[in-house]
Amino acid sequence: MNKALSRLPRYAKNQLVFFLGGVGKIKNFRPDSNTWNYAIEMEMGPEPKFGRIGNETTILLHESDIQGLFSST
After folding, report:
1. Domain that includes residue 40, residue range
2. How far apart are CA 64 and CA 54, in angstroms?
3. pLDDT digits (tens, 9 = 90+) for 42-68
């Protein structure tokens, strides 16, 4: 683990979070330059008429790019 990073990650695996551009679930995370880097699987929208070509989209975001936990209430 990165010795310079002394705090725990803000988000946990499988938490639903939101960010500029969408909503997704934390799939993985790791320390990166005094912050945490998260792999987030974005929620899939409705299936288009022509079907799907591939799997869900996974993006990498720094902790500061995540705006918070998603709440349905």
Report:
1. 16-69
2. 29
3. 877 777 777 666 666 889 999 999 998
Each residue's pLDDT tens digit, 26-43: 999 999 988 999 999 987
Q: How confident is the model at residue 22 (pLDDT cuts 50, 70, 90)?
A: confident
Does residue 54 lie within any of the structural domains?
A: yes
Instruction: Return d(Cα 62, Cα 23) in angstroms, integer.
Output: 15
Within-domain flag for 40: yes
Quick one: how far is CA 52 from the chain centroid?
Answer: 22
Residue 63: phi and psi, rounded to 5, are: -55, -35
Compute the CA torsion angle 45, 55, 53, 42 (nearest 10 deg).
30
Asked if the structure places residue 53 within a domain, the reply is yes
Question: Which amino acid is residue 45, in one-letter code?
Answer: G
